[in-house]
Structures are given as C-alpha cells and as structure tokens.
Amino acid sequence: MKQKSVAVVGAAETTGLGKIPDMSNIQLHADCALNAMADCGLTAKDIDGVACAGQTPVEIAHYLGITPTWVDGTAVGGCSFMLHVRHAAAAINEGLCKTVLITHGESGRSQIGRARPVPPPSSLIGQFEFPYGPMGPPTMFPMPVMRYMKDMGATHEDFATVAVIQREWAAKNPRATFHDPITVEDVLDSRMIAYPFRLLQCCLVSDGGGALILTSAERAKDFPTKPVYILGTGESVETPMVSQMESFTSSRAFRTASKKAFGEAGITHSDVDHLMIYDAFAHLPVFGLEDLGFCEPGEAAGFIRARHTAPGGKLPMNTNGGGLSYCHTGMYGMFALQESVRQMRGTAPAQVDGAKLSVCHGVGGMFAASGTIVFSNEAP
Amino acid sequence: MTEYTRPLPQPTPETQHYWDGAKAGELRLQRCGDCSHVYFPARPFCPACSSRDVNWFTASGKGTLFSYVINHRAPKGFEAPYIIAVVQLEEGPRMMSNLVDCPQTPEALEIDMPLEVTFVTATDDIAIPQFRPMGA
Question: A281: which residues sit within 8 A by CB, 6+ positions away?
Fold first, then answer.
C-alpha cells in the first residue's frame, strides 16, 4: 500500500473491561463501535465499510444500522483485526468504501452469546491432533517451547521473566486486570497448566472489545482526533495444526507478515519507538522479537532479561500489560492495536515519551496466522 | 475393555488408507513420485510440488521426541497429567501423539530421545498411533 494514505481516526474499547456480565457478544461489538464513533464524531450512517471477526459483518452491519458497500469477515483468530486493517486500507485506497469500522467484541469470560465453532472430527486437526487430548490454546500453543529451550538454551526463568515484565507495565494501567507486582518465583510457583507453562504464563480470560475507524489520510485531517497513519501492513498464514509448523523455534507466518509490513513502511528496526507483540502465552514475545528481526535467533530471552522491553527500556513492548496482565478476550489482537493507537495519539496510560512509530504484531490460532501493522503519528 | 471415551478421528476419503493402516498396525505415509517429498498428514497430492503422482508406503515407526507439553487438566477420557508430544519421524514428517509406557513427567523425557510407534485400539474401526520410548 501507499504509505500514510490511510489513517485511524476513531478508536475505543468497550466501556467496561474484564467481567461484563450484562452484555452479550454482539453488544460488546456495538458498545466499542459506538464509543469509537463518538470518539471521532460519526454515527452509523457515516460508515460504509464493516470488518469483524467472531460475529459476521452481516450481523454487525445489521445490528448497528450500517449499509456497507464493502465488508470483510476474515476470521483467522486473534490477529484477524490486523488483517482487517490491511484489507480496509487497500479497500479505501481502491475506492470501494470511504469509512471503515472494524469491531471486536468477545464475551470470553461470561460466555454470553458467544459462538466458537469447534472443527469436526473429520477435519485435519480433528483427525490428527484432537485424538491426543489437546485442550485448546493452553496445551497447543506452548508445544514448541521445550524444543526452543533445547535449541536456544532458554530457561524456565526466561519465560517467567516475560510475565514479570508484562505485569510491570500493567501496574501503570488503571484498566489492566492485574496490577500487583510478581516475581520470577511467583510465576514458577503458580499452578501448572501444561508443562512447561504455569498459570501466570497463560493469558487472562476476559470480556471486552475494541473498535477502529479508518479513512483516507486526506479526510483524516477533518476529524477531531489526531490521525494515526498506517505506514505498512503484512499478513500470512501457516498451518491449522501447531504440530505441522515448519520450525519450532520460529514462526513462518510471523516472519512473512512482519517482513512485508517493514518493507511497505520502509523502516528499519532502529526506527521503532514502541512495539506490541501479541502475548497470549509467555513465549510469543520471544518468538516475535526474533521473527520480526529485533533480536537474532536465540537472543530474545536475554534481551527481555536485560530489561530492554521493560519500563525505561529502549524498546517498550506490550505497554498496556498485554494478554498476560491487561486483558484477553480470546482474540486479543484488537487490544494490541488499540494500545498502538493510544501510544501514537499520546494518550496511553504508560505513554512512551515522544513515540513516533509503533509496530503492532498479532498471531491467530496456534501460530496459524499473523498480521503486522506499522503506525506513525507523523503527517505524510 | 473399558469404553473408549477420547475424541475419535473421522476418516475422509483422502485419509482412509492412513487409518486402515493404523488398524492393521502400520504407520502409513506418502511419498511424491516426482520430487520424493515425504509428507503428513495424508492428501492425494504433494504439498511440496503439487504433483498428483504420490504413493503410500509403510513407515518404520521410528522417531524422536521433537517437543512436548504435559497437560495437567484432563479432558474426557484422559487422566492428568499426560504427555502430548510432537514426534519427529525417521522419514521426515512430524506428527502429534501421546507418549505411553513411560512416567508422564519431565524427568522421564529428554528432547530427541528415540521413540517407536504403538497402536491403541479405540473402536472396531479405529486404532490410534501412539509412541513410546524405544525398547520400553
């Protein structure tokens, strides 16, 4: 895409976050959508493009009273919203629509009106993984970790440190679910979920949502909010079965999506002021730092241990507290995007002073899919 | 025999031969006639070069422990803790499995340890390939 041709002009999360027992899944989409419209002074009749996952664009357009000329129901898990941003930017540039609303809402904790289809026993995952008793993401996602530890020399303490530093960021964020400091020992003493990972290395289970409104950079100047420009985008997929990943020390989808986004944006790693790497589990920032090229293979754990991604570090990462300590509805990617937008607007609770460029990297499924967005707050 | 309550695979036309093999005590893989790529899971074409000239063969059933988790929350049919492993097969592909005939503890496991296939009868039609430490 053409750099900075499209901007985020509206962004908001659901009014509540964490436990929202008085809203269904679709109402969580609507709540944050209405908040995002209010953020930039629009109503549903100003929206002509709809993208969402977890509900269909048909459901969301109808529920909100939108008549779209473009929809995108790409649903590849938690990074679907990064792909929506990418597709929306292309659609706006192509003239298919002018103003796109991207919504995420998920009653992940209260489970009100949430449909999460399970692949049938005849699917590939149903035939070749489910018979072995994996219980969703907590058992599937950490599958590469023991291999990574052997090949790269990483330790249990390294993966505990990820959770400790995420909590330091969360302590600065009033909306985060957890604020109390934790130690490496706390993490390693927490309840075993699926060895090698324990409770504090697994994401939260939350209710919530977030919405973005995108339009052309030219129109963005007329909105009351500070435009956040899209500088580059990337997406890819690899496999529905974690057992079939090409490598257990690197994600092909991560590498492919981020390379494309960095290339489009024309940036190098030293340009990046702020980084979000979807942290459903404690190994994902380690894989992300290496696959995005911020660290050499095997060096990300040491980079995190050296506090480079912690408050005060040279590469502030997951500054909202992340999926481990802020919130995690099931498809967390929208919350990573929201934090990137806040950082670019200068309104984040743990604001990175002077940040001009933010990279937001998401994962879908168990390393099944990936999307990367590069944001900038500098006008084209 | 106690009733088998774990999730059962439902074979499709493309995978039936694999499951017929498991029932017969064989781990069957496919090899491309054009580029010799060996792959898993089953499909009637080569995912490396798109050729439809592919052939079934019986694998050695030998492999090594590529990675694993030990699940501490048992779903129906399983008793926690239990190992879910990814096995590196001698022929090249990897597959998910459980490890049986060994303690379900990290102390009993070493990454790259040699494994061999065994089959657990689930129903009259389905046997599930499992792995155990070589010589266990």
Answer: A137, A138, A141, A142, A197, A201, A202, A203
Does residue A2 surpass a pLDDT of 90?
Answer: no
d(CA A367, CA A140): 10
Q: Chain B contact for A121, CB < 8 A?
A: yes
Q: Is the predicted pLDDT of residue A88 greater than 60, yes or no?
A: yes
Q: Where are the domains of chain A?
A: 6-113+204-376
Give all domains of chain B, ordered by start, each with its CATH number.
16-133 (2.40.50.840)
Instruction: Find chain B residues with C-beta within 8 A of A144's C-beta.
Output: 67
Long-range contacts, stretch B34-38, CB < 8 angstroms, 24+ apart: B37/B92, B38/B91, B38/B92, B38/B93
For residue range A301-346, list pLDDT tens digits in order: 999 999 999 999 999 999 999 999 999 999 999 999 999 999 999 9
Which site among A118, A123, A132 would you substitute to test the B interface, given the most B Cβ atoms closer than 10 Å to its Cβ?
A: A132
Q: Indicate whether B1 pLDDT > 60.
A: no
A153 in reach of chain B (CB within 8 A): no
Q: Does A21 touch chain B (CB under 8 A)?
A: no
Tens digit of each residue's pLDDT (9 = 90 or more) over A142-185: 999 999 999 999 999 999 999 999 999 999 999 999 999 999 99
Strands (E), chain B: 28-32, 38-39, 54-58, 62-71, 82-89, 94-98, 114-121, 127-133
List the CATH code of the domain at A6-113+204-376: 3.40.47.10
Mean pLDDT of chain A: 97
The pLDDT value recorded for residue A321 is 98
* Interface contact A248-B66, CB threshold 8 A: yes
DSSP H helices, A223-283, are: 252-265
- Please say whether the beta carbons of A199 and A13 come within 8 A: no
How far is Cα A355 from Cα A250, in angstroms, rounded to an integer?
A: 28
- If DSSP codes are grouped into helix, strand and coil, which group holds residue A147? helix
Pick the residue from chain B with its C-alpha nearest to A129.
B96
**Residue A130 forms contact with B (CB below 8 Å):** yes
pLDDT band at A117; cut points 50, 70, 90: confident
Cβ-Cβ contacts under 8 Å, B81 against chain A: 192, 195
Query: How large is the ipTM?
Result: 0.98
Q: Of B64, B65, B53, B57, nearest to B40 (Cα)?
A: B57
